[in-house]
């Protein structure tokens, strides 16, 4: 690990000020960042520790939703009584990720900002436009089993690796972002992560000098909540494909269908056309196929990850079949 | 700001170099070599210790981040003369071969039994609410952060199940 200065931030504004310098980074749980620092993928000159600035509370909002402090751990969120009762898709997504040891340290803000697990990104001897702009993409034409089939570019085919944000995208949560001058802005989780385009080093819309303060969940939505994760082993593995779904059925017709997909793209994937197609229709295998057609309309395999296209279709069928079974 | 952390009940001064992981601090600075370095990347769980009651990977934490924290390592759980219930069960069930992963397994399982007692669900739980039974499936999922390259899993699960049902009664 390269040498760095370590300082504790005392407030979000303090943290935001410290990270205005390009060589500075924030550390909270550290489970992803320290791993990357050991690999010298990240070489900050200043680490600003935000672990003790508060912002770990999970509190009810005035509109019946829930505000999750950026420093609330994955564990604290997954075991929270209201998350379990009103947002089970979020509890399930978090529990499906990592291990208890990691979830005990990993924070909500840090989890949103976690980096891709692309093999070329984490190996400093390989080309990677995300790690070293202009060096090329080793994954294109390389080993790319875990990589994106939607929204990739000629510069980067990495995926966003997390589970938590996929559930938050289905729930249409918002990220509350603070700046050094105390100003705040809020961004839907669905728009927080970026597609790689020709600037793949930017994972999300956070600017230098901004910090995540909280994630706000809207008031609970009627319907079934499902998180389905397909992975190579039954625990402690990243998703090949995952689906977070909030779906309601009334009198034989779908009345709500909020779906988000993990493992397919550089961000949790949400396509509003799927909801438009499903809502108002009676569920059927043929309808589900059309939903999968929409989802995968522009899907493009890279070789090793070609399997993700039929796998996403099957996973979507499985989730919708589970809904029909529970609705019956 | 406090400049010490508490390990197995005793205060210790934080290291000067912020790069020192909690794992290296325990092993090199304090000589508590029961905590093991396996992968050093949070994948194997050999370095698991208990911080303020929660199990974590000590390799993915800097010692300086833990000022004022209460840390329990395998040395703090029991002694050869007075082993903890899990230490005794691992011996009785032969829950290891080479033993390298064992301190991490036992620290992890110690905290895991508290999590079950506190009603925390896991990915293997059919419902997110209620009481969670320490079934083989639950124990395997909850212990998935601790690898055993000798493959002593069957006996590890048996040892943990033994203590889980004991403390249940």
UniProtKB/TrEMBL annotation, chain A:
GO terms for molecular function: FAD binding; oxidoreductase activity. Residues 1-222 form the FAD-binding PCMH-type domain. Pfam families: CO_deh_flav_C, FAD_binding_5. SMART domains: CO_deh_flav_C (SM01092). Keywords: FAD, Flavoprotein. InterPro entries: CO_DH_flav_C, CO_DH_flav_C_dom_sf, Diverse_Substr_Oxidored, FAD-bd_PCMH, FAD-bd_PCMH-like_sf, FAD-bd_PCMH_sub1, FAD-bd_PCMH_sub2, Mopterin_DH_FAD-bd. PANTHER family: ALDEHYDE OXIDOREDUCTASE FAD-BINDING SUBUNIT PAOB, XANTHINE DEHYDROGENASE SUBUNIT C-RELATED. This is Xanthine dehydrogenase YagS FAD-binding subunit. It comes from Blastomonas natatoria.
From TrEMBL, chain B:
Residues 1-77 form the 2Fe-2S ferredoxin-type domain. GO terms for cellular component: periplasmic space. Gene3D superfamilies: 3.10.20.30, [2Fe-2S]-binding domain. The keyword Oxidoreductase applies. InterPro entries: 2Fe-2S-bd (IPR002888), 2Fe-2S-bd_dom_sf (IPR036884), 2Fe-2S_ferredoxin-like_sf (IPR036010), 2Fe-2S_ferredoxin-type (IPR001041), 2Fe2S_fd_BS (IPR006058), Aldehyde_Oxdr_Iron-Sulfur (IPR052914), Beta-grasp_dom_sf (IPR012675). Keywords: 2Fe-2S, Iron, Iron-sulfur, Metal-binding, Oxidoreductase. GO terms for molecular function: 2 iron, 2 sulfur cluster binding; metal ion binding; oxidoreductase activity, acting on the aldehyde or oxo group of donors. This is Xanthine dehydrogenase YagT iron-sulfur-binding subunit. It comes from the Bacteria. It comes from Blastomonas natatoria.
């Amino acid at each position: 690990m390269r040498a760095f200065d370590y300082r504790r931030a005392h407030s979000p504004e303090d943290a935001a000020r410290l990270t205005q310098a390009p060589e500075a980074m924030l550390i909270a749980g550290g489970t992803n960042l320290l791993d990357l620092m050991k690999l010298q993928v990240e070489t900050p000159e200043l680490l600003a520790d935000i672990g003790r600035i508060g912002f770990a509370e999970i509190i009810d909002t005035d509109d019946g939703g829930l505000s999750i402090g950026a420093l609330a751990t994955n564990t604290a969120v997954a075991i929270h009584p209201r998350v379990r009762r009103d947002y089970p898709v979020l509890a399930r997504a978090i529990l499906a990720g990592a291990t208890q040891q990691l979830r005990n340290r990993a924070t909500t803000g840090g989890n949103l900002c976690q980096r891709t697990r692309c093999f070329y990104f984490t190996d400093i001897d390989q080309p990677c436009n995300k790690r070293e702009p202009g060096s090329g993409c080793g994954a294109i034409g390389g080993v790319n089993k875990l990589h994106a089939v939607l929204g990739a570019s000629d510069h980067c085919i990495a995926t966003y690796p997390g589970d938590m944000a996929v559930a938050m995208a289905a729930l249409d949560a918002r990220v509350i972002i603070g700046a050094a001058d105390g100003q705040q802005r809020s961004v839907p989780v669905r728009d927080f992560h970026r597609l790689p385009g020709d600037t793949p080093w930017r994972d999300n819309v956070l600017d230098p000098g901004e910090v995540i303060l909280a994630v706000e969940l809207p008031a609970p939505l009627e319907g079934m909540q499902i998180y389905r994760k397909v992975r190579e082993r039954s625990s402690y593995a990243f998703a090949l494909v995952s689906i977070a779904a909030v779906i309601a059925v009334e009198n034989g017709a779908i009345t709500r269908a909020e779906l988000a997909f993990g493992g397919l793209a550089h961000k949790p994937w949400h396509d509003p056309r799927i909801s438009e197609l499903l809502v108002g229709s009676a569920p059927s295998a043929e309808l589900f196929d059309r939903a999968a057609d929409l989802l995968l309309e522009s899907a493009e395999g890279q070789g090793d990850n070609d399997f993700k296209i039929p796998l996403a279709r099957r996973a979507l069928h499985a989730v919708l079949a589970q809904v029909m079974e529970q609705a019956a | 700001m406090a400049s010490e952390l508490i390990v197995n009940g005793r205060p210790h001064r934080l290291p000067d170099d912020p790069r020192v992981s909690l794992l290296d601090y325990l092993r090199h600075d304090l000589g508590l070599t029961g905590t093991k370095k396996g992968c050093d990347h949070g994948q194997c769980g050999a370095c698991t210790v208990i911080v303020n009651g929660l199990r974590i990977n000590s390799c993915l934490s800097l010692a300086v981040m833990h000022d004022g924290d209460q840390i329990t390592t395998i040395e703090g759980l029991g002694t050869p003369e007075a082993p903890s219930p899990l230490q005794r069960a691992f011996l009785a069930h032969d829950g290891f071969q080479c033993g390298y992963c064992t301190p991490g397994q036992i620290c992890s399982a110690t905290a895991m039994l508290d999590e079950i007692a506190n009603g925390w669900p896991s990915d293997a739980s059919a419902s997110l609410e209620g009481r969670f039974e320490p079934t083989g499936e639950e124990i395997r999922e909850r212990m998935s952060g601790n690898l055993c390259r000798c493959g002593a899993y069957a006996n590890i699960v048996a040892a943990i199940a033994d203590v889980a049902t004991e403390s249940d009664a």
